[in-house]
Amino acid sequence: MSEYTKILLEEDEMPTQWYNIVADLPEPPPPALHPGTHQPATAEDFAPLFPMALVEQEVSTERYIDIPGDVLDVYRLWRPSPLFRARRLEKLLDTPAKIFYKYEGVSPAGSHKPNTAVPQVWYNAQEGIRKLTTETGAGQWGSSLAFACAQFGLECEIWQVAASYLAKPHRRTMMEIWGGKVHPSPSDVTEFGRKLLAENPDHPGSLGIAISEAVSEAIEDETVRYALGSVLNHVLLHQTIIGEEALLQLAKVGETPDVLVGCTGGGSNFGGLAFPFLREKLAGKMSPVIRCVEPSACPTLTKGEYRYDFGDTAGLTPLMKMHTLGHGFIPEPIHAGGLRYHGMAPLVSHVYELGLVEAIAVPQLECFAGAVKFARSEGIVPAPEPTHAIAAAIREALACKESGEEKTILTALCGHGHLDLASYDRYMRGEMQDLELSDDLIKAAMLDVPEIA
Amino acid sequence: MSEYTKILLEEDEMPTQWYNIVADLPEPPPPALHPGTHQPATAEDFAPLFPMALVEQEVSTERYIDIPGDVLDVYRLWRPSPLFRARRLEKLLDTPAKIFYKYEGVSPAGSHKPNTAVPQVWYNAQEGIRKLTTETGAGQWGSSLAFACAQFGLECEIWQVAASYLAKPHRRTMMEIWGGKVHPSPSDVTEFGRKLLAENPDHPGSLGIAISEAVSEAIEDETVRYALGSVLNHVLLHQTIIGEEALLQLAKVGETPDVLVGCTGGGSNFGGLAFPFLREKLAGKMSPVIRCVEPSACPTLTKGEYRYDFGDTAGLTPLMKMHTLGHGFIPEPIHAGGLRYHGMAPLVSHVYELGLVEAIAVPQLECFAGAVKFARSEGIVPAPEPTHAIAAAIREALACKESGEEKTILTALCGHGHLDLASYDRYMRGEMQDLELSDDLIKAAMLDVPEIA
């Protein structure tokens, strides 16, 4: 294996448990609060939205949770996912560093999202749920949920931000191939949607509006629930299979990371890769620097405040303590749609506050420049979101070139960019620009965030 | 491994030789002929187009040819490719048959084409060639060659059929990410292109015209050569790594195929999968039925004639003895663009004439219906071309359901459909129809084929 490019695991080496970082943190994360009373949210508060098994996972303090056999069976369609040594990129950069990337683009939907979509659908199926609703922006999450629903025979109804619905018809087609029913949002299906369409028939929609429509459709019917693709504890829990596999794969070639970088939007890709390594670090078994990478245009950790805020724009969800730019904040239209979220997963926010992880923000031109280098050397065209992780890995590798250090760098390529080629086209024609965020804009968006002691 | 879904090979289990079926055939295939003299074509006739190493492979009778180490290094970016047992599709079909599929969509370009693009570029690089030219229709081949050129630092210039250039901008973007220079064809770069544009500024182009432009640009410059993505012997040779890997993978789980089905356009995917199994069959080690699957709208084997014809529409290439619908035949605009070729690889045609393989034609509605079943059960959205192979595998599996036979079926899923979702959209909206070919149309196209004794 001295000249390996890919480090693979056999199916029977695939981890059979998810890892819950809450069990190992020096301080427990602050609880979610009821949006009306501001008291800690109870299981009943979550019950109209999620099946009980997922509500239990959301507040669990168990260190390991078994992955159901039916879920493992579906995981096997693409898992264990490969870990690559980026030898050809290293050569291009002329760096003494070793760059490893865990590749999640091998999933049917092309990203890490099915890792949580599959168990979410399965737990709902176990509790007799007939249909799941959700929102989607660019479509990665919506297509993952549609795929998972097809596996267990559930209906899937998706509200896609109208602007994306029109601009990215191929992602919608993908959802439909898997049996998903897709509405542009605002839609004429919900009262809220009809109200907005009456005001503006060409309303472009927003993720916040799409969440409101999906949630309202779920809570009206006992046989329907809602599913979320990031941010929540149980979502990050399911994604830890990424990091658990990567640990086993690095061990096969006798490596431990000196630096781990991951892109952060809602936080599920980062948490999924990083938390198993953070466990090892807390146990004194390795000592990687662990770093979040966010877009300069939506710098939740590096410029947001750590306080209670709503998860959605309309303020319907429980309040979560997290780094936020304000729930009314509308991020700039950068191409990494999956990173355009005003908040950060409470668990990622918490470990950042505890000083266990670092964070940097990277502008999008640097990201796309890195992605083109990556594509020409490693072959894979990355989705816009992980271009941030790649840009950060390249920064590290070039620093090693300066210093002569042979650091081992680990990152996750959380999805391919086959359905995001229009972004690359804009970049290569010189039509893309960096979108920096003014402090005034952030201040203004924070005005609506409730004051909670 | 009793419950395996994927059968993987380690990198050091990857075959290190390609297999040349010519060495094992009961009769040698008829030679290519010079287009002017109708005498057997010599190495010198091919020299302006291809490097000598590839010309030698084109006429080689060696059984095995070593894969260069540099080529193996690039192959490792995605090879060995996985062999899947389609358990979830079997369950959906309620069949006692076992369905295996070799998946080539894991390559950077998303199809089997890089298997030959990489060695073609490498051999050109060894002979000091600076630039490669080629044509592309839908874009699978052009993007594969651009990727391969990026690996070895060659320039890549691609003439894409104008209608596709306009209708499929994302494939073009992919070629550009890898550094390819893409022209719509007809283009203002060549004399032939300018002539056609002068006659019709909105000329939609054709594969034949694009070939003429790419060839004319190659033969004008000593440092430039041309590359072809299918049909020729050396292309099929490079693709045999598919079948060699599949043989090793099936052996790992103790299986031999009873039926092998593969889609055929130019013939490289089919030959790549089937020839190593045909070797085993000729040696008496197994006895699979081996079947070509072609589109009803372009039924080269099942309705074409076996005779000498040109490889391109303009009649510039050597004459090859093959099944042909006539080099002037313009296939119906079916969605499987990669199967819209008037001829069939001479080697595939030859083994068909010898009775070593069978052929069937399948209409496109049946193909897309099968593909949607496949996507909903196995997760992967197939490219339009391999939907033909899937449809044929499903026919076989359903016949097993009738008969109760537990046959082992093997096929190749030669590419994913991420850049072909518009075809699925048309199918699901009921806007697609079957395109049957009239015998009169074939007769008319055959009139231009030269009479050769």
TrEMBL record, chains A, B:
Its EC number is 4.2.1.20. Its cofactor is pyridoxal 5'-phosphate. It is an enzyme of class 4 (lyase). The modification N6-(pyridoxal phosphate)lysine is found at K113. Coiled coil: none annotated. Pathway: Amino-acid biosynthesis; L-tryptophan biosynthesis; L-tryptophan from chorismate: step 5/5. Keywords: Amino-acid biosynthesis, Aromatic amino acid biosynthesis, Lyase, Pyridoxal phosphate, Tryptophan biosynthesis. It catalyses: (1S,2R)-1-C-(indol-3-yl)glycerol 3-phosphate + L-serine = D-glyceraldehyde 3-phosphate + L-tryptophan + H2O. It comes from the Bacteria. Residues 77-415 form the Tryptophan synthase beta chain-like PALP domain. Belongs to the TrpB family. Tetramer of two alpha and two beta chains. The beta subunit is responsible for the synthesis of L-tryptophan from indole and L-serine. This is Tryptophan synthase beta chain. It comes from Candidatus Seongchinamella marina.
